[in-house]
Amino acid sequence: MNLNEIAEKILQTDRIAVVTHASPDGDAVGSTLGITLALRELGKDVVVLSKEPAPLNLSFLPFYEEYGLEATIGEDRELLLALDCGNKERLSMERDGFDEIFKINIDHHVSNEMYGKLNYVDSDSASTAEIIFELMEALGVIPDQSMAQCLYTGIVSDTGSFRFPSTTAKTLRITAELLETGLDFSYIQRVLFSTSEFKRIKLLGRALMTLESHMDGFVSIMNLEANDFNILSISDRDSGDIVNYGLEPPEADVSVLLKEAEGFFRVSVRTKLQIDASSLCGKFDGGGHVRAAGCNIKAESLEEAKRLILEEIERMRSV
């Protein structure tokens, strides 16, 4: 499947719904709002589906307020465009009408389950926003500054401001074209990477106090209890960047953040060189990227959750 075929199908369709994964990040929201702007410029009737609002730090994006207003596919919708989501269960929407509607699945996660009628999954792209840029080209849409704002947000979010190994020459070429719109990229960088609410900084402090070193420093593990989120009145999705701090020790190759839930632990994983984060999380029915992934581990205690993931890392190291 190529993007020209997908563009042809979209151009033949008038009423479209766009959706991405639950707990949306910068790439998910930037891609969704970017393609929404492009399709509306083409005269399409587009609805954004989501069970929840987008993160507050993305409120500068155009049409941010449409996130979380609708979650059910209207009977008039002809096509569902699913973005940045590896499996249909994680799509942030109600299931009414899902099986019947024509689905296009666009993603860059290697673990994608190809659940669309049409699928375009490019794991060589650093972000789904890159693919949306290319889709806009296929649709004949030249990104304006508002679209560029969305796509740039997606790209810098998933590349860690161009720090992650997923960044390619193509990533930078696309970024250069977005900057040519006059985009105020320094404002976006400041909001995404240099601005945090007081309670998020406090949450970071709580996590760092739990930092442990395992396997002679090869693995860093941190954890957050349910009570940490309750005391600070903060959502667990506001903890996304904390796991990156575990990779700062030069000897660390894997960083793990365990977040307590009811009967299980939400797990975020980041890696440098030796361990494939997606494969590691895949052992617990999760997935993601080679260097950044997530999963849920069913465990009765924190110590059990640590043991399970450390045993799997040890096994992967020995292969």
Automatic annotation (TrEMBL):
Domain DDH, chain residue ranges per copy: 15-155
Start and end residues of each DHHA1 domain: 236-314
Pfam families tied to this protein: DHH (PF01368), DHHA1 (PF02272)
Domain of life: Bacteria
InterPro entries tied to this protein: DDH_dom, DHH_sf, DHHA1_dom, Oligoribo/pAp-PDE_c-di-AMP_PDE
Gene Ontology MF terms: nucleic acid binding
Protein name: Bifunctional oligoribonuclease/PAP phosphatase NrnA
Organism encoding this protein: Proteiniclasticum aestuarii
